[in-house]
Design brief:
Radius of gyration: 21 Å
Shape: globular
Helix content: 40-55%
Order of helices and strands: EEEHEEEEHEHEEEEHHHHHEHHHEH
Structural class: alpha/beta
CATH class of the largest domain: Alpha Beta
Strand content: 15-25%
CATH topology of the largest domain: Hexokinase, domain 1
Number of helices: 12
CATH architecture of the largest domain: 3-Layer(aba) Sandwich
Number of strands: 14
Length: 339
């Protein structure tokens, strides 16, 4: 039995998979509120106790934050996660802790075309690819082609310095710098980032949001409310906020593609993208993605895909855990030697 996890700043998704030949069969899954637990071990214990008792043969957990030497201080959670401690808590010797976007990268490599929506067809090529995903934070990962397969390379590129491109974006930068000091792309291209953009636009004309919108924000996620109001065009400032958000999202996707020379394609994942699909498809994202001066023609040839599969990180974590079992089996065969 394989245990897979996807730990985000808002929720922790966990699942058990049975290994059946080369396929993974989902046995059970659950989603728990991350802030409802003092530690990841507690969330896993809760999940495992909610079903029949199982023996975990291998496990992999993707977490939002940099993983160094098997240890991670979560970016948007008060958790310090340790690979060795997790192994003890689930009673397995085969445990892997990875960045959540690294897990998503492995998951994307196994997706069917039906789980993807083309935002830009481009020119099909074999080569490096990248993944960018806005959710509670902004994740970025490289999928490097080694002439045989794609190798997933983790990154914390979402925390790189925000680079404004227009006068309006420069004003946004100054607004956020007064509040946060340093301004990263994650301060703009993320769930909280969309609300930051909306607050900036409000402050610009000294007005306040309509009463009905304020009431909805107070009772729910402000960023989600802004996105909904933009998509149904019920508030002009929300429309402007989402337009600016998506343009900056596309520009940073283009930056990532350039840095990796990702001629094989770029994937747009995360929890936000599928919810604003209609906005991503209206050309704003791709226009900013292509807007790279002398390299604009190259950018127009790079395929851009929207990822619809919400469990890509979980599937990727399961694939990594399965590889731990495969390595263990290979090692056992070598130890036995020829018969």
């Amino acid at each position: 039995m394989i245990l897979a996890g996807d730990v985000g700043g808002t929720k922790t998704a966990l699942a058990l998979f049975d290994v059946r030949r080369r396929a993974l069969a989902l046995v059970r899954e659950g989603v728990l509120p991350s802030h409802g637990f003092a530690a990841l071990e507690d969330a896993i214990a809760q999940f495992l106790s909610d079903g029949p008792r199982v023996a975990v043969d291998a496990a992999c957990v993707g977490v939002a934050g940099p993983v160094i030497d098997g240890r991670c201080t979560a970016t948007n959670l008060p958790w310090v996660i340790d690979e060795a401690s997790l192994a003890v808590s689930v009673s397995t010797k085969r445990m892997k802790l990875v960045n959540d976007l690294e897990a998503t990268g492995y998951g994307i490599l196994g997706l069917s075309p039906s789980a993807l929506v083309p935002l830009q067809t481009g020119v099909p090529r074999t080569g490096n690819m990248v993944l960018i995903a806005a959710g509670t934070g902004l994740g970025e990962v490289l999928l490097i082609w080694d002439r045989r397969r794609h190798r997933v390379v983790g990154s914390e590129g979402g925390h790189a310095d925000f680079a404004p491109r227009t006068d309006l974006e420069m004003e946004l930068f100054r607004f956020l710098r007064r509040e946060f000091g340093r301004v990263s792309y994650e301060r703009v291209v993320s769930g909280p980032g969309l609300y930051n953009v909306y607050r900036f636009l409000l402050a610009g004309d000294g007005s306040s949001e309509p009463e009905w919108l304020r009431t909805r924000m107070e009772s729910g996620d402000p960023s989600a409310v802004v996105a909904e109001a933009a998509l149904d065009r019920s508030d002009p400032r929300a429309v402007q906020a989402l337009d600016l958000f998506v343009s900056i999202y596309g520009a940073e996707a283009g930056n990532l593609a350039l840095k990796a020379l990702a001629v094989g394609g770029i994937f747009v994942g995360g929890g936000i993208a599928p919810k604003i699909r209609t906005k991503l498809e209206d050309g704003t994202f791709v226009s900013a993605f292509r807007d790279k001066g002398r390299l604009a023609e190259l950018m127009a040839t790079i395929p851009v895909h929207l990822v619809l599969e919400p469990r890509a990180a979980l599937l990727g974590a399961a694939a990594i855990a399965r590889s731990l079992l495969s390595r263990a089996a290979t090692g056992a065969r070598r130890a036995r030697g020829p018969r």
